[in-house]
């Protein structure tokens, strides 16, 4: 792992690109006027990172250093497939490193996969309507949920990289070097697991629409199985193992719903139902963020700390109040990431869990009613005509 500031990583990535460019016949280093100062910087960088206690993959850096030592500035024979594949990779690299939101989705999946019970993706996977809302606006019921759009964009990046690798199947060494340089692609397997959950939940949408469970033939990952790099590809690189990050768990004061409930009751007494809903929604989102912060500290912290249970109970109380005021959709969206953990921890018959499940059931009933109404409308093509008007 680089001992790193942003400039160090930029130099590391740039040096790797230079080595790839020469290997593909894309550049001739002999004509580069700044070659000497770059060589000096490369030597210093390799010495510093090579002596660091943190494990860093310096394969491309050292290959380039050796190339410069031997004055091997260009390839003897141009391979057009490598040339054009590198051109495509250069364009892809420029795009993904300027797309901060997708980078955040990909790297954030490392944390997500370690706290699957706090999966905020479940909020927009409750129904096709919510998924469409998340795709179109980046929000669900006014709550930020950009992952739907970002996940599909990330999938397109992985598909483009896979296509580039397929075009150079004849040169396994260059193929490995591309994978080595594309550090973001090393998280494909984790992103695939995340998107597998999307697939599983989307299958359940048919049950919502029809009221019955249809037989489902699993796609076994579908097109995700065709993407690269595979686990075998990564193992072939011999990458150094990264050290485990220390826990970031922090102690926070015990939470109570007394204040928000008192404020809500005051709003309702004044006839300000809208203000009460806004206050409850804001509080529910704040509690949800605290639950996620416990999860980030590690899966053990989430399972063991009593604070998680207290916060989850508080969240359900706030969402129950929100639902009674007519905001069932908002309450369901906020609770969705935690339903699985509640059932696993306390069981489906626990009183607290039942309150959460009742909210989810009410939301599904709303969806079913909406589907029925839409179906009736579709069967009445002349509903807008007055009697005797045709």
Walk me through what this model shows.
The protein is mainly alpha-helical. It folds into three domains: 1-78, no CATH class; 82-239, no CATH class; 258-376. Helix content is 65%, strand content 1%. The protein has helices spanning 6-23, 35-50, 59-69, 80-98, 100-113, 128-137, 147-167, 172-181, 188-203, 205-210, 231-237, 258-269, 273-296, 299-304, 306-324, 328-335, 339-346, 351-378; strands spanning 139-140, 143-144. It has a two-stranded antiparallel ribbon with strand order 1-2. A hairpin with a 2-residue loop joins β1 and β2 (143-144). α5 crosses α9, α16 crosses α18 (351-378) and α17 (339-346) crosses α18. It is elongated. The termini are far apart.
């Amino acid at each position: 792992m680089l001992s790193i500031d942003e400039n160090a990583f930029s130099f590391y990535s740039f040096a790797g690109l230079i080595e790839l460019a020469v290997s593909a016949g894309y550049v001739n280093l002999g004509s580069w006027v700044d070659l000497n100062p770059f060589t000096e910087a490369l030597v210093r960088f390799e010495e510093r990172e090579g002596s660091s206690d943190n494990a860093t993959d310096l394969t491309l850096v050292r290959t380039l250093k050796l190339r410069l030592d031997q004055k091997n500035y260009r390839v003897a024979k141009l391979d057009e497939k490598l040339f054009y594949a590198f051109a495509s990779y250069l364009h892809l690299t420029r795009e993904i490193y300027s797309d901060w939101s997708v980078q955040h989705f990909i790297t954030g999946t490392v944390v997500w996969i370690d706290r699957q019970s706090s999966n905020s993706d479940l909020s927009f996977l409750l129904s096709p309507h919510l998924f469409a809302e998340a795709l179109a606006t980046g929000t669900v019921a006014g709550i930020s949920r950009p992952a739907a759009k970002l996940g599909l964009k990330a999938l397109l990046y992985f598909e483009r990289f896979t296509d580039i690798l397929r075009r150079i199947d004849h040169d396994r060494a260059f193929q490995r070097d591309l994978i080595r340089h594309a550090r973001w692609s090393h998280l494909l397997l984790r992103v695939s697991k995340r998107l597998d959950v999307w697939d599983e939940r989307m299958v359940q949408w048919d049950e919502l629409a029809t009221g019955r469970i249809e037989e489902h033939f699993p796609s076994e990952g579908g097109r995700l199985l065709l993407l690269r790099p595979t686990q075998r590809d990564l193992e072939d690189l011999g990458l150094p193992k990264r050290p485990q990050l220390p826990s970031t768990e922090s102690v926070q004061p015990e939470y109570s719903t007394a204040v928000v409930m008192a404020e809500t009751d005051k709003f309702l007494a004044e006839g300000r139902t809208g203000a009460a809903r806004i206050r409850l929604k804001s509080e529910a989102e704040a509690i949800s963020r605290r639950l996620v912060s416990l999860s980030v500290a590690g899966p053990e912290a989430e399972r063991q700390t009593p604070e998680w249970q207290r916060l989850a109970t508080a969240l359900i109380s706030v969402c129950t109040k929100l639902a009674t005021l007519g905001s069932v959709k908002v309450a369901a969206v906020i609770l969705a990431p935690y339903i699985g953990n509640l059932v696993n921890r306390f069981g489906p018959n626990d009183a607290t869990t039942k309150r959460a499940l009742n909210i989810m059931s009410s939301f599904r009933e709303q969806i079913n009613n909406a589907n029925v109404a839409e179906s009736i409308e579709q069967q009445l093509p002349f509903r807008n005509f007055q009697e005797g008007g045709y």
